[in-house]
């Protein structure tokens, strides 16, 4: 606990009165610390591809200048490093946009079934390259609820990308939507989208921290797979903007299941 102490003294006819004021500034300190950690993390994440790029540029200007094969190899690595920086900046912008809008709950009706079909269609090349199948179980043609279509597309894209990245070989992704009339946590009707993979799963000790920015179970694997460490943080903020819930269930060796639970009722002020 951090206290800020302010001291003031007043001189009166009866002598000097001293007023000591103790204020608990722990929450402020924590926010400050989180901000500092975030800046340190971003700087670190940007610095490694930048250092690599500078190194390659130097080599291309010097020893590799007249070696076409080496030039091709270096240029392709440089492209990968630059793409990594681009993905990081893109995810940072998405995260800051959702955070800025977090108090503004979306009110426009969107069709959740259409969104999932669009996301699966858009990710078909990724699934094909990875040799992973993705099925969608849904027993309705459409399902309307108040939402932000672009942000929800990003949520399901991130979950599918993760299921592919961490699902290992012989993976099959199952997606489903079902509705509940009275969800206990949301106290009303909701839609539940499940994205389940058959990968090696997640040790439960990591689950509570997965939505923290830059939290990765295996840094090397995440980077190798092109991860920025921000995907689930974006998912969490979008779901929270929709006043929904994110549920993660997994056990090592059992595959992972991510559930996005979204309220189906319009907020009162919009009806
Ligand atoms: P990243 O860009 O590293 O994928 P995310 O925020 O999307 O960042 O995910 C955070 C971490 O959660 C990942 O680095 C990975 O360790 C773990 N993770 C996410 N999805 C899965 C999954 N489907 N199976 C196993 N681990 C996962």
Structural key phrases:
7 helices; 45% helix; 9 strands; two-stranded antiparallel sheet; 271 residues; binds adenosine-5'-diphosphate; single chain; alpha+beta
Describe the structure.
By secondary structure, the protein is α+β, with helices and mostly antiparallel strands. The protein has helices at residues 26-61, 68-101, 112-122, 124-130, 149-166, 219-224, 231-241; strands at residues 3-12, 15-24, 109-111, 133-137, 144-146, 172-183, 188-196, 245-250, 256-263. It has a 5-stranded mixed sheet with strand order 4-6-7-9-8. The chain has a two-stranded antiparallel ribbon with strand order 1-2. The longest helix has 36 residues, at 26-61. It is flat. The model has no long low-confidence stretch (mean pLDDT 93).
Gross morphology: flat
Quote the distance from N terminus to C terminus: 44 Å
Order of secondary-structure elements: EEHHEHHEEHEEHHEE
Q: What's the count of strands?
A: 9
Low-confidence stretches: none
- Overall pLDDT confidence: 93
Helix content: 40-55%
**CA radius of gyration:** 24 Å
Beta percentage is 15-25%
């Amino acid at each position: 606990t951090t206290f800020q102490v302010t001291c003031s003294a007043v001189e009166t006819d009866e002598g000097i009165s001293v007023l000591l004021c103790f204020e608990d500034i722990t929450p402020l300190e924590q926010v400050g610390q989180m901000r500092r950690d975030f800046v340190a993390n971003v700087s670190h994440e940007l610095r490694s591809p930048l250092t690599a790029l500078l190194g390659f540029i130097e080599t291309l200007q010097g020893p590799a200048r007249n070696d076409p094969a080496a030039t091709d190899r270096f240029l392709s690595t440089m492209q990968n490093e630059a793409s990594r920086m681009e993905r990081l900046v893109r995810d940072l912008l998405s995260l800051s946009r959702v955070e800025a809008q977090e108090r503004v709950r979306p009110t426009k009706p969107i069709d959740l079934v259409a969104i999932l079909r669009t996301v699966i269609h858009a990710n078909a090349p990724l699934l094909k390259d990875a040799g992973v199948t993705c099925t969608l179980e849904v027993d309705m043609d459409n399902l309307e609820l108040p939402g932000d279509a672009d942000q929800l597309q990003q949520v399901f894209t991130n979950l599918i990308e993760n299921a592919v990245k961490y699902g290992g070989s012989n993976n099959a992704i199952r997606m489903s939507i079902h509705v509940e009339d009275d969800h206990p946590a949301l106290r009303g009707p909701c839609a539940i989208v499940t994205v389940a993979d058959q990968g090696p799963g997640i040790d439960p000790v990591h689950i509570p921290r997965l939505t923290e920015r830059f939290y990765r179970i295996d840094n090397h694997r995440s980077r190798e797979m092109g991860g920025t460490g921000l995907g689930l943080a974006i998912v969490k903020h979008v779901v929270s903007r929709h006043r929904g819930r994110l549920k993660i269930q997994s056990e090592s060796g059992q595959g992972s299941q991510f559930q996005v639970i979204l309220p189906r009722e319009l907020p009162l002020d919009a009806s």
